[in-house]
Amino acid sequence: MSDCTTRTTCPYCGVGCGVLATPGKDGVAIKGDPQHPANFGRLCSKGSALGETLDLDGRLLHPEIGGKRAGWDESLSLVAERFSQTIAEHGPNSVGFYLSGQMLTEDYYVANKLMKGFIGTANVDTNSRLCMASTVVGHKRAFGADIVPGCYEDLELADLVILVGSNMAWCHPVLFQRLQSAKAERPQMKIVLIDPRRTKTAEMADLHLPIAPDGDVALFNGLLQYLADAGQLDQSYIDRHTNHFDEALTAAKMSLKALHAKTGLSADQLAEFYRLFAQTEKVVTCFSQGVNQSSEGTNKVNAIINCHLATGRIGKKGAGPFSLTGQPNAMGGREVGGLATMLAAHMEIGNPAHRELVQRFWQSPAMASEQGLKAVDMFDAVANGKIKAIWVMGTNPVVSMPDANKVANALENCPFVVVSDIMADTETARFAHVKLPALGWGEKDGTVTNSERRISRQRAFLPAPGEARADWWHMAEVGKRMGHPSAFDYRSASDIFAEHAALSAFENNGTRDFDLGEYASLSPKDYEKFQPTLWPRRKGQKGVSQRFFAGGHFFTPDGRANFVATPTDTETALAQPTKLRLNTGRVRDHWHTMTRTGKSAALSAHIAEPYCEISPGQAAKIGVRTAELVEISAAGQKVLARAIINPKLGHDQIFVPMHWNGNFSSNGRINALVPGKTDPFSGQPALKAAQVDVRAANMGLYGFMVTQATPAELHSTYWAKAITKKGWRVELAEKDAARAIEKTVRAMSGLEIGAADAHYHDPKTGQHRLAWFAGSQLQCALFLATEPVAVSRAWAVDQLAQIFETPAERYRLLAGRPGKDMPDPGPIVCSCFSVGANQIADAVKGGCTSVAAIGEKLGAGTNCGSCKPELSEFIDEFTLSAAQ
Ligand SMILES: Nc1nc2c(c(=O)[nH]1)N[C@H]1C(S)=C(S)[C@@H](COP(=O)(O)OP(=O)(O)OC[C@H]3O[C@@H](n4cnc5c(=O)[nH]c(N)nc54)[C@H](O)[C@@H]3O)O[C@H]1N2
Ligand SMILES: Nc1nc2c(c(=O)[nH]1)N[C@H]1C(S)=C(S)[C@@H](COP(=O)(O)OP(=O)(O)OC[C@H]3O[C@@H](n4cnc5c(=O)[nH]c(N)nc54)[C@H](O)[C@@H]3O)O[C@H]1N2
Ligand code: SF4
Ligand SMILES: [Mo]
């Protein structure tokens, strides 16, 4: 490790990998930190590409008022004044903060303190409501506190790992790799995947249960019933450490017929799963958004926990329920009480003693006395004018909230909107009256807590760009200007962390789970040296315990865990059988609304446009073929996406990724179609369950363009753009083929069709192909056809900026025919080494029958390893076809 290397933590997923960042002449070199206990040196594709996302293109570098550059002082004063004035006129409930699990703990702490302790309302909610809220409530109902009982090591020690509603291969890739290594060492370890879709995660599973959407409560209720019938309960644990078992078992009872109907699984599938669970002592059940983002998300969480409590498989090595948190600081946000339903340091807003304690600690003038508005309700309150001033920080709700157009309209009509972001032009920032530039990853200092309760430092290794300042500073400066100078007089993130730690330990004495007393008087120097640690860290505590509840002590009033009755009488069948069920989620190489990963050519190569997975039967029914566009609609809103026909998908289901938005595609923002239906206990929206119509989009003209210039305004019916190493690639489609191609071209690239240096036109097939050169260097190539353009994208992208001297070379380019010297790599699978599907298929055909052998030959999978599940799929498919 060189002197210029900084130890920090990845800003993406909740695995919380340690990163070594070394700024140098050619940018920042990124490596996994071998000493970090989350990843031991590994990084996934997104972590590995962090260096590509640190440029200042598109960054917000100065405060803006009404779209014009403004000074910090006037901007902060305006925010303070407008919030104060709104509160004076309409009361504290007329303002709100909408925050993010990507804020650092210190940022979050200050925001929560300002709103709950000094403005005096709990109208502070966060995108964690869309992410982890059901788990929070599920944990509290069962354990009396929001605790993840185990740690990552448990996944490695388990003999059975169950993944429920988790696409771990793509969403928690380094943890997935740890699990893969553990299984390679102990092949007897079993992995079960429960997901309606067969995802890349299934590549590692011994058993994939393609459960009916929202069949999870029934599945785990059925398991509880099975365990009871088979005499496989841990009766002594139940008797000594829990309450309400009988109620839970009674509620779980259902006929076999109902069980099959709700889960969509056969008797054999159920029996195999139930037997595995019953027979294995060391079981870890990991769950993620297929569980949380549901109108019965909280009951799903409790149905899972019930089975672990009933078998005493909790808090032990290799056993327990394990919530996989999404965002880098989802957990830190919960620790500071960043949600509208909590107080600080895992205290309860509904508990007067807790409120009094926090108020005394903060010396606050106006404590919130009840829960505030949860995300969906908060934007409803903006829409109906109850909230008149809102501050959005570190999240992009116009893309990520359900009923996204309603959110956009609400912000448009809100009298005062503040947005703190690192980027100047997000779909949310467009509605801001005041924009405040935040420090981004690598520029800011603070802490994050990962899925296993491990607190790690994010450290700055880059100078602050422009006038950007830390998020906590935005909040603290407004707090001071609202009349609380001493309460918000922080000099650094370290000051804030120490205060947060002190509050967690304040009059705690072991009564509350969350305790960082050890750090209550941490010095800035110690903060600099802070090593990744699990909590609790009580003052004077000897050693760090990795697990909760081994001794059966819970944080409920009587110290016993609660079984929760989770009846399955909620409707799981399609409400309107004529509609399709829209499932949404993530792709391997993009992060949410793409403001950062969209800057990386390596990450943008894997999947470059919005797509819709659809079953062959459904595709045939609507008359759409692979690669044509489909139109997905609901409530008068429409999304266009590329059809991918997936034979393993249920007939009445489709899947569309959540990432694409107006900055990268014409109409890919899927949340425009997802209604704001929520779980009754957690308020978390059912983001995987919209009812939609799908039909063929019937485009008259399709296009594909590679261009060195950043595409200007794109006006075609459909477009999607992705950055490449030498420029951009753009997918296009026009509804009306007769519409002048010339117009399309000009709108797309500013280039004149008449000025193209090479043309190819085939009136029979309706194909037009054009290329523009600067000297002999390819500047832009455009391929147009009446059906989806059949040109290798990866190959075409590689042609940009190449030299084409002779007419023959240029002709070959327009023919889309790779020359012998430039073979077509096929769609990119390994983003680290740009290895494409054709290359991998050739290698497999040539005798590479293991992932390692492919790696040796092509390099694919040998850096971050995120593509390994895809590589093994190639091998499986080849072996299968060879066997037939
Ligand atoms: N590459 C990448 N990784 C990420 C992120 C990212 O944006 N990109 N975001 C991070 C964040 S914030 C989060 S929250 C996590 C999310 O991580 P995951 O939860 O693993 O990801 P998702 O793709 O949202 O959804 C997981 C799966 O739930 C399935 N599912 C849908 N409905 C049901 C159901 O009713 N039952 C069951 N059992 N399964 C169902 C979907 O088919 C999907 O495959 O990922 C984190 N990691
Ligand atoms: N349909 C559907 N919708 C979903 C989901 C789904 O599965 N399906 N998943 C939901 C889930 S789990 C989540 S977590 C959300 C995520 O959704 P969002 O939180 O909206 O997504 P991000 O793109 O991560 O937004 C982060 C914003 O913060 C900015 N930013 C980055 N770093 C900083 C910083 O240091 N400070 C500040 N102030 N800003 C910064 C980024 O530029 C970006 O604008 O989406 C939810 N929406
Ligand atoms: S798994 Fe990947 S995205 Fe998640 S923290 Fe590790 S490197 Fe970052
Ligand atoms: Mo999330």
UniProtKB/TrEMBL annotation:
SMART domains documented for this protein: Molybdop_Fe4S4 (SM00926)
Cofactor(s) of this protein: [4Fe-4S] cluster; Mo-bis(molybdopterin guanine dinucleotide)
Keyword field: 4Fe-4S, Iron, Iron-sulfur, Metal-binding, Molybdenum, Nitrate assimilation, Oxidoreductase
Top-level lineage group: Bacteria
Family designation: Belongs to the prokaryotic molybdopterin-containing oxidoreductase family. NasA/NapA/NarB subfamily.
Gene Ontology annotations of biological process type: cellular respiration; nitrate assimilation
Protein name (Swiss-Prot/TrEMBL): Nitrate reductase
GO cellular component: membrane; oxidoreductase complex
GO MF terms held by the record: 4 iron, 4 sulfur cluster binding; metal ion binding; molybdopterin cofactor binding; oxidoreductase activity
Domain 4Fe-4S Mo/W bis-MGD-type: 3-58
Record InterPro entries: Asp_de-COase-like_dom_sf, BFD-like_2Fe2S-bd_dom, BFD-like_2Fe2S-bd_dom_sf, CT_Nitrate-R-NapA-like, MoPterin_dinucl-bd_dom, Mopterin_OxRdtase, Mopterin_OxRdtase_4Fe-4S_dom, MopterinOxRdtase_cofactor_BS
Organism: Maritalea myrionectae
Pfam families: Fer2_BFD (PF04324), Molybdop_Fe4S4 (PF04879), Molybdopterin (PF00384), Molydop_binding (PF01568)
